[in-house]
Amino acid sequence: MSDTTINPELAIAMRGVTKIFGDDPQSALALLRSGKSKAEVQAETNHVVGLDNVSLDIAKGQIFVVMGLSGSGKSTLIRHVNRLIDPTAGEIVVNGADVVKMSLDELRTFRRTQIAMVFQKFGLLPHRSVIDNVAYGLEVRGVGKQERLATAAKWIETVGLSGYENSQPRQLSGGQQQRVGLARALAMDTDIILMDEAFSALDPLIRSGMQDQLIELQKSLGKTILFITHDFDEALKIGDRIAVLKDGALQQEGKPEDIVLRPANEHIEDFVREVNKARAIHVRSIMTRGAGERCDILVPQDARCEDVLPLFAEHEWVGVQDENGVQIGSITAKQVIRALARHTPSPAGELAA
Amino acid sequence: MFPEIIDTRPLRRAVDDALNWIVRHWGGGFEAAAHPLLMLLKSIENLLIATPWWLIIAILVGVAWLSTRNWKLPAVVLVALLFLGVMDLWEDAMATMALMIAATLTAIVLAIPVGVWMSRSLNVRKSITPLLDLMQTLPSFVYLIPTVMIFGPGKIPALIATIIYASPPLVRLTDLGLRSVDPAVMEASRAFGTNPRQRLLGVQIPLALPTILAGVNQTTMMALSMVVIASMIGAGGLGYQVLQGIGRLEVSRGLFAGLGIVALAIIFDRVTQAFGKQLQARIGLAEAR
To answer: Using N-to-C axis directions, what is the helix angle for B168-179 and B122-137, rounded to 10°?
Structure first.
């Protein structure tokens, strides 16, 4: 990652973003820059380091997940992208525009037209009906009533809430309320959507359904989604790329399998140990490349290890095909087992998971 | 005895002289400035007295029904109003109601902007809160006398004294209501690019409305509790009847007029509370608390 130039093709780029909460962040910043740790800065100045020199490149059209435990600064990070929080230092470029340098007026226009957000606690307006909530962003943007209600109705249908248009948010379940939140963001038709622990407040089954729906939507709409979660399984399921945050500092950034197969440090290994690796690892990242011997059993290239495991009950190996049906590689049971066993201190207990 | 450290007489004389100077030089100006208040009060009073009694009963019973969709409150309102009519207190009750309505309307216009201002700045809140405490605790005669000196006895000083006494709860509850709007909702609104005015009118005030309405309820109640004192300086109405009852030792007159004030209080208290509850249910705060 280069720290000097920013590729304007990126959806979101952050360079050295640092946030210190307190009355005099600049002096605390100087301490932090002099090499003191977050805990030392807090002990000496009573200032909390929210983000510590975070640099990220987020390409267009992918789901980028920022993962971290509570207090890791992930919610602070996402709020920097639309500047709900002002950084103490650093550069944030969204769609080629420097967010930090924007005037308040420019910032409002930017929020109205370029970026939408979904919140953990939904953030719906309790005094408005579902359709008026979904149309809220367009209303703020100044879109006429008929047009915004038509757009809102379309998105309500897309998220599967037809018939609830005139309900009040409180009459809906948590999952339905978050669908309203999602529809409200989608109705803005922005290229970038920020999702702050959007599914964390939902029941596991509903959460899983929402994740599937999000992946579907992203495939058909090609949006850039910055997704925050504390759930590693969720990150692995939906993320095209994952960044792990701890104590406000970036620990590792990469594809899901990079993180599972090559955790950068002990902190990430702790996560990896708890996770269902068979779901995280795509077969294409561990297969033997090349057309090779033709196999009758073919799996798509975005299959994951858990998808091929049942096949090994009957077959020694299976082929992997690209979207055109051409065989691009093959994978054996041994390769899968080896990938799943890596970084596992007690293999016996782990394979069952 | 507490030792005399300074001679307070010059200080007191200075205050008295200053007031006299104000009365002499600015009295006319003050009276002109307060004229719109007088017009408001007079037009409400004239309207209430000119309206036939049955129409007023019909309107208030109808409003009571709208606020609850239930026969109980309208029945209470009907009985209370009939009591006022039967006891020959109708015209006095209308005068008192006019004073209360005028004071409440003025308080709404003055107090809500102050409440909004307070909710936005900690410093403003810190400096206005003691002023509100003062307005509520300072015995009303202390500011009644200077206002009578400036405006002369009559309805204006009565109205001003009522406003001073009755607006603090509305300011406080507006401030409280605006500040207790769910920060998650405010943040969501901010993320969609709203400006402060859009957030105030589109999110904060609608969500704070039940609390603000509780403030209006408090204001009407406190305005009613001022009517006896206000009648001492020429407000007339039910309070004057109570005063006369005390003066002539006619217990019955004082008692019935006093009960008349209670009847008005019940009507306005229950109706505004019912509207508040209705509003809360519509926003969905009732279940949340």
So the answer is: 150
User: Is the distance from CB of A108 to CB of A83 less than 8 angstroms?
Assistant: no
State whether residue A124 sits within 8 Å of chain B by CB: yes
Dihedral sign (CA A310, A311, A316, A322): negative
Q: Do B185 and A124 touch (CB under 8 A)?
A: yes
Instruction: Measure CB to CB from residue A140 to each of B187, B194, B283 and give the nearest one.
Output: B194
Sorted by where each starts, the structural domains of chain A and their CATH numbers stand as 60-85+100-277 (3.40.50.300), 282-351 (3.10.580.10)
Instruction: Give the chain A residue whose CA is nearest to the CA of B287.
Output: A170
Q: Which CATH architecture has domain B10-288?
A: Orthogonal Bundle (1.10)
* pLDDT tens digits for range A274-315: 787 787 788 888 888 877 777 778 888 878 888 888 888 888
For residue range B201-246, what is the model confidence (pLDDT) as tens digits?
999 999 999 999 999 999 999 999 888 888 888 888 899 999 999 8
Contact B187 A84 (CB under 8 A): yes
Shortest Cα distance, chain B CAs vs residue A59, angstroms: 22
Q: Per the CB < 8 Å rule, is B194 touching A123?
A: no
Q: Quickly list DSSP for B147-205.
A: HHHHH-SSHHHHHHHHHHHHSHHHHHHHHHHHHTS-HHHHHHHHHTT--HHHHIIIIIH
- The domain limits of chain B are 10-288
CA A87 to the chain's CA centroid: 21
C-alpha to C-alpha distances, A313 to A281, A320, A321, B78, nearest whole angstrom? 19, 17, 20, 83
Tally the C-alpha atoms within 13 A of residue B126's C-alpha that lie toward its C-beta: 3
pLDDT digits 0-9 by tens, B151-209 = 888 888 899 889 999 999 999 999 999 999 999 999 999 999 999 999 999 999 999 99
Which chain A residues are closer than 8 Å to B201 by Cβ?
none
pTM comes to: 0.82
Residue of A nearest to B196 (CA): A108
How far is Cα A53 from Cα A89, in angstroms, rounded to an integer? 8
Of B193, B203, B288, the CB nearest to A111: B193
Contact flag A137-B287 (C-beta cutoff 8 Å): no
Cβ–Cβ < 8 Å for A283, A305: yes
The distance of A104 to chain B (nearest Cα, Å) reads: 9
ipTM of the complex: 0.81
